[in-house]
Design brief:
It is built from 17 helices and no strands. The protein is mainly alpha-helical and 333 residues long.
Length: 333
């Protein structure tokens, strides 16, 4: 096989993997929106860890937190600085309500300094004793700088959410892996069969590579992959707000339709060049031609290679695809 033929084969495979990755990322966005996975787990964590006196609910209902999501819904992500401020506000509110003297005689208002909030934490019935000690220590170590104390509490919140963040990332990756496997089986995306086809049909492989090069020149692939890259980065830092809080059902459906239309164009590119994606059927019948005996082993291996390859992510395959197209352009001269 010539160098150009090898490049065409690799470009075809890379394009298939980019397409599969984009389909998977679209699915993951829908899972985030419709299952509210992140927001449910975050709400549970706050309510359980601050259940005394329903402090958790008060924090979530605080205007700073409540404004992060549409009315009637909980946020997917709470910035640590807003959490710290909301927590201290609720503790201060409790203290003001419980003092014997009125606000005028005691000089209390909605605003507080470091000494005042330390006193409020010490007398609070909402915070567990271990948290009272920790938060009070943070504020005392801030040497009168309230913002520094809030920053320390914010860091505590961020670190405490570590296990929740890890759980969310793991679930997202599990959903994605399962979906990719489902797509590989349902659409019969068999890497071995695709490689054989491209190897034995160099003309089709060359035409497919040309079509992919045209898509790349239009910038369509780059736009889709950048979206995918941003979303996968948000899995790692566990901030899905950008993809869910600002999207109502109508706008989400519109976004999904646009994604689907683009992906359909990519699939059409594959179908035009005869790639063996999808289940073959008996002539004149809708009955699928199923593998027999040892053929199932090759089929399972082909699906496995596809799923493992797609798990590398769209950015990886897109970067490789661009490099291969660049080399192909030089070789063809």
């Amino acid at each position: 096989m010539s160098i150009l033929g090898t490049l065409d084969l690799l470009i075809g495979l890379s394009f298939v993997y980019v397409l599969m990755s984009l389909i998977g990322s679209g699915f993951l966005e829908l899972v985030w929106k419709w299952t509210s996975l992140r927001s449910r787990k975050l709400e549970e964590w706050v309510l359980i860890n601050f259940k005394k006196g329903k402090l958790g609910k008060k924090i979530l209902d605080h205007p700073l937190i409540d404004s992060l999501s549409p009315k009637g819904k909980r946020p997917d992500f709470i910035p640590e600085n807003l959490f710290a401020e909301s927590l201290l506000d609720e503790v201060w509110k409790e203290y003001r309500e419980n003092v014997d003297a009125g606000p005028e005689s005691d000089g209390l208002s909605n605003f507080y300094n470091t000494d005042q909030i330390c006193k409020a934490i010490g007398k609070s019935e909402l915070l567990p004793s271990e948290m009272k000690s920790v938060f009070a220590q943070y504020l005392k170590e801030s040497e009168g700088k309230l913002e520094e104390g809030r920053k320390r509490i914010a860091e505590w919140f961020d670190q405490s959410l570590g296990h929740l963040s890890q759980l969310f990332a793991e679930k997202s990756r599990t959903y994605l892996l399962a979906f990719n496997l489902l797509v590989a089986v349902v659409l019969n995306v068999d890497s071995i069969e695709i490689s054989k086809y491209l190897y034995h049909n160099p003309v089709a492989a060359s035409q497919l590579a040309d079509a992919v090069a045209q898509l790349e020149e239009k910038g369509q692939l780059l736009k889709q992959v950048e979206h995918n890259k941003q979303m996968m980065m948000l899995i790692e830092v566990n901030d899905t707000t950008s993809f869910s809080n600002d999207l109502g059902i109508d706008s989400l459906v519109a976004l999904t339709r646009n994604e689907i239309d683009t992906i359909r164009e990519y699939i059409s590119t594959l179908e035009t060049h005869g790639l063996p994606i999808g289940w073959p059927r008996h002539e004149g019948s809708r009955e699928i031609i199923k593998p027999k005996g040892a053929q199932w082993i090759n089929k399972l291996l082909g699906w496995t290679i596809t799923v493992l390859a797609v798990s590398m992510g769209a950015p990886f395959w897109y970067d490789l695809l661009r490099n291969l197209l660049g080399v192909r352009k030089v070789v063809k001269k």
